[in-house]
Amino acid sequence: MRGTERAEVLTRRVRVVVIGAGQAGLSSAYYLARRGLAPHREVVVLDANPAPGGAWLHRWPSLTFDAAHALHSLPGFPLERPDPKEPASAVVNRYYGAYEREFALPVVRPVSVLRVEPDDADRPDRGGAGPLRVTTTGGTWIADVVVNATGTWDRPYWPYYRGQDVFAGRQLHTHDFRSAAEFAGQRVLVVGGGTSAVQFLLQLAEAGATTVWSTRRPPGFTRRAFDPEWGREVEAEVTARTGAGLPPASVVSVTGLPLTPQYQAGIDAGILVSRGPLAELREHSAVLADGSEERVDAVLWSTGFRAALDHLAPLHLREPGGGIRTDGVRVARDPRLLLVGYGASASTLGASRAGRAAALAALDRLRGLAPGTGATGTLD
Q1: What are phi and psi of 246, to 5 degrees?
Q2: Are the C-beta atoms of residues 23 and 348 closer than 8 Å to each other?
Q3: Among 24, 91, 198, 285, who pairs with 341 as Cys (CB 3.0-4.6 Å)?
Q4: Strand 132-136 to strand 113-118: parallel, antiparallel, or no bridges (unpaired)?
Q5: Cα–Cα distance for residue pair 97/52, rounded to 1 Å
Q6: pTM of the model
Q7: pLDDT, tens digit, for every residue of 166-194?
Q8: C-alpha–C-alpha distance, residues 244 and 254, integer Å
Q9: Which of 307, 348, 44 is nearest to 154 (CA)?
């Protein structure tokens, strides 16, 4: 069967299940298909979204393509330059959809993965050699290898501050932001030091809101060019953490904020100037760590996301440091599981490379389990 297939409530046996149809998941599926794994019969991609686009499908309409983080092409199918003012969500939905059709990728949607666990037949004495059971809202898949590509969008991080429960105004997370126009004439506290916070502050100011910016540390604006050398240093730093079993650090703590002309203008206008850490919220105000108090009508928590891995809890993958220890895309505690879109592969460029690495690792394991799987061709 070609293209997208409707989910059915049944149990199926495949060689590889890919969870997530974002950049990392589609890249993994592409390389697995190039090596000859039969769509739906040997490999399947499970996606919780109702349409192509991954997390981009949910981005706020005002996030245009030119304002979004750089989107790199998927392997074998270059992204043509769209209208820079078109919403990024529409661009990616169209591009990912065309990609799935072009390569007849075996995407099943919408199904949410509830848990991944050893199959009933996987006895402890087999040392994790048995298959994995993937239970979803649309049925169950049994697979020799699971490639997890669920990203972070489904796990917005809400920090705790005293007074959150008594604040009378609106509170929302980046995850739920739709339009700056909703806040015209209001006083808005934006909490967070990443790119999203900076973009929200500029949009809110343009829409007629008065903003207050709170960050735990001084904003990390940098004039350094985001060149390949910089990229290698960032990837090495992130890889060192995940290799040690520590949770990935926030993006901005590793990359910094590029000091673009637009951002410099925002600094000069007093919009992109942090007031420092937040101390507490009161019914109609926010108190900063320096003791100053500002009346605010709404709080926008631009405080990032965490890896969406709750469905992997039955596999007991966490290290004492709180993260999942990985060697590239391989998970130290379970060779049946590969993580892409995690750590260094969370960027769109890293995700495509990780997809290729995951396909190689998956095929290597399949060969070890059952020589002669039928996989052919190259990954070039």
Answers
A1: -100, 150
A2: yes
A3: 24
A4: antiparallel
A5: 5
A6: 0.86
A7: 999 999 999 999 999 999 999 999 999 99
A8: 16
A9: 307
Q: To the nearest 10°, the Cα dihedral for 232, 236, 239, 243?
A: 150
Distance CA 127, CA 113 (A): 24
Q: What are 93's two structure tokens? A: 């939905």
Q: In this structure, are residues 39 and 101 in contact, taking their beta carbons and an 8 Å threshold?
A: no
Whether residue 125 is predicted with pLDDT greater than 70 in this model: the reply is no
Token couple for 16: 């590889």
CA atoms of 313 and 228, how far apart (whole Å): 36
SS (H, E, C) the chain: CCCCECCCCCEEEEEEEEECCCHHHHHHHHHHHHCCCCECCCEEEECCCCCCCHHHHHCCCCCEHHHCCCCCCECCECCCCCCCCCEHHHHHHHHHHHHHHHCCCCEECCCCEEEEEECCCCCHHHCCCCCEEEEECCEEEEEEEEEECCCCCCCECCCCCECCCCCCCEEEEHHHCCCHHHHCCCEEEEECCCHHHHHHHHHHHHCCCEEEEECCCCCCEECCCCCHHHHHHHHHHHHHHHHCCCCCCCHHHHHCEECCHHHHHHHHCCCCCCCCCEEEECCCEEEECCCCEEECCEEEECCCECCCCHHHHHHCCECCCCCECEECCEECCCCCEEECCCHHHHCHHHHHHHHHHHHHHHHHHHHHHCCCCCCCCCCC
CA pair distance 99, 91, nearest whole angstrom: 12
pLDDT in tens, 133-152: 999 999 999 999 999 999 88
CB neighbour list of residue 338: distance below 8 Å, 6 or more residues apart: 145, 146, 147, 148, 329, 330, 331, 358, 361, 362
Nearest to 214 by CA among 288, 129, 266: 288
